[in-house]
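Reviewer comment 2.1 asked that we show a complete input and output for one of the modelled complexes. We chose the flavin-adenine dinucleotide case, as it is the one discussed in the main text.
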Amino acid sequence: MDFSWTAEQEALRSEAKQVALDAVARFGRSNDSWINGFSKEFAKELGERGWIGLTWPVEFGGGGRPAIDRLIIGEELIAAGAPIAAMWFADRQMGPTLMTYGRPDQQAEFLPDMLRGESTWCIGMSEPNAGSDLASLSTTARREGDDFIINGQKIWTSFGAIADYCYLICRTSNDGPPHTGISEIIVPMSTPGIEVRTIKDMTTNRHFAEVFYTDVRVPAENLVGVEGNAFKQTMRQLEHERGGVDRLVSNQALYHLALAQADLSDPIVRQRVARIETGYRIGRILVTREVLHQAPSGFSAATKCFCTEHEVEVADFVSHVLGADAMLWDDVTKGLAYAPGYTIMGGTSNVMRNILGERVLGLPREPR
Ligand SMILES: Cc1cc2nc3c(=O)[nH]c(=O)nc-3n(C[C@H](O)[C@H](O)[C@H](O)COP(=O)(O)OP(=O)(O)OC[C@H]3O[C@@H](n4cnc5c(N)ncnc54)[C@H](O)[C@@H]3O)c2cc1C
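Response of the prediction step:
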């Protein structure tokens, strides 16, 4: 086990840093840029570079490169705030999910556009009455001949208004316990019967949407994997979502900005800087273990919990350093106001601790 970077990895990091800084100069910097920094143009540039699907197997059109390379590139792009949102969901989880559970014809249809940075995907999971408890979702897909007819409502769908496709988690059967009977279906967002209402959050970001599905007809062949098996498939997908470097460095640019202004002779500031620097290093080790698939099954919940709570601590440090200036309502303020979202999206910290307790530590299940 060697924790130092190779010369090639150092060179890749320098290249990624340069690409990130150039993108920020042309398209602007965003906090949590894998959700808030949206540029189709930059996504296509990343596709041309081969930086989408970098680690996907070559037979699927990917780069077949090591997971550490993707970690390095992702870390630099996100830490700088470069706008990668148009391709991130596809690269991080929709592509890998289709490679694992999709049919060859689905892989042939959807993967090439993802790799070119030409298709944006949203994830239709959360509903007004189903967030942490995904099994209680009620959006239905009813089989009618060769089609599914979809009815229901999703909420907090990031990119709902601009995505080309939704990766929809919905109920295809009410038989059996609630977590059975859930399926995953690809829904083109241009399908008639879809109404999207954009939600502007308190930081003025507009990536969220409520999405209403009324008699939306999609071909049954858009089902991914096994009908009724989505709970297992979705848990696998969430492993991709939770263990990555995107959960660690989303507001690192704000940290560096505050660090440059901090009074480093102040003992309290020094303690906090040491703590944050330690957090970045521990977080990176946890993430590295995840991307190398060397963490115990389910441990991505702990990694996500640690890393996103670190991001919240960074935000707290930034507001401590900036004092009243943190209220100027500029990009810094918006980044600070946005920070509580880190420990909510992709599963809340409470739920992550439940998963850690029950699946990794073997504690008794929480009472229902
Ligand atoms: C920035 C951002 C982007 C998002 N993007 C998407 C997206 O693209 N697609 C999508 O489908 N969703 C998305 N979401 C929604 C997100 O997945 C949900 O907000 C999250 O799963 C929590 O669900 P909820 O909001 O319904 O809260 P609830 O589940 O109602 O939780 C409310 C509170 O109760 C606590 N709680 C709930 N259950 C338990 C339990 N069993 N034990 C202990 N405490 C518990 C929670 O920790 C929380 O504090 C996004 C959210 C954010 C903030």
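The pocket of flavin-adenine dinucleotide is lined by residues 35, 122-126, 131-132, 156-158, 341, 344-345, 347-348, 350-351, 354, 366 (CB under 6 Å). We note this here for comparison with the apo prediction described in Section 3.2.
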